[in-house]
Write a structure and sequence with these properties.
alpha/beta, Ribosomal Protein L4, Chain: A, 2 domains, six-stranded mixed β-sheet, 6 strands, 15% strand
Length: 210
């Protein structure tokens, strides 16, 4: 499979990037994508939620009524979950929501996500670029040239570029990440993925079956 390399003007450069036949699956694995996206979203959760249980509620320890003869159930503490202001039964506790997904499954998920983007013509390869200074106008011009200005665009660079990053801060639909930060969630969430020529070479190495 070959992908054409475009320049900053959106024109073909005559160069192509070849993806090995075994790199992009012909039939994407939806379950692998589901697991990797679920892992990413779960890992974003802080897990710091906490509610007080009956032993943690500050309340009087006096027995609120006699044991028998009231015609109602026994009650020994105002901190009981049965009373207003009492502790909560099985309330949330701090926890880690992340779980384990094998490296091969993660790699398969990213390859499957790329397969969907290529199939839907949502993956573009551009020659390496940078800006002399942060300019939102320059970034918007690049997006217009690539016909991704009206889409949720994801730009993947080989390494951090401060000027490119600052140029996108006023563009709510645009996101810039490095190839090392690329996840299945980023790929599936984007309406258009723009990968620099050098970044896709690094991505190919990362996705090779090991």
């Amino acid at each position: 499979m070959k992908l054409k390399v475009l320049n900053k003007e959106g024109k073909e450069t005559g160069r192509t990037v070849e993806l090995n036949d075994g790199l992009i699956p012909s039939e994407p694995n939806d379950h692998a994508i589901y697991l990797d996206v679920k892992l990413y979203l779960a890992s974003q959760r802080q897990g710091t939620h906490k509610s007080k249980e009956r032993g943690e509620v500050k309340a009087s320890t006096r027995k609120i009524k006699r044991q028998k003869g009231t015609g109602t159930a026994r009650a020994g503490s105002i901190a009981s979950p049965l009373f207003r202001g009492g502790g909560r039964v099985f309330g949330p506790r701090p926890r880690d929501y992340s779980f384990k997904v094998n490296k091969k499954v993660k790699r398969l998920a990213r390859r499957s996500a790329l397969a969907y983007k290529i199939k839907d013509n949502q993956l573009l390869v551009v020659e390496d670029f940078t800006f002399e200074q942060p300019k939102t106008k320059e970034m918007l011009r690049l997006e217009n040239n690539l016909n991704v200005a009206d889409k949720k665009a994801l730009f993947v660079l080989p390494e951090p570029d401060h000027n490119v990053y600052l140029s996108t801060r006023n563009l709510p639909k645009t996101r810039v990440i490095t190839v090392g930060e690329l996840t299945t969630y980023h790929l599936m969430d984007a309406g258009a993925v723009v990968i620099s020529e050098k970044a896709i070479e690094t991505l190919k190495e990362n996705l090779q079956t090991k």
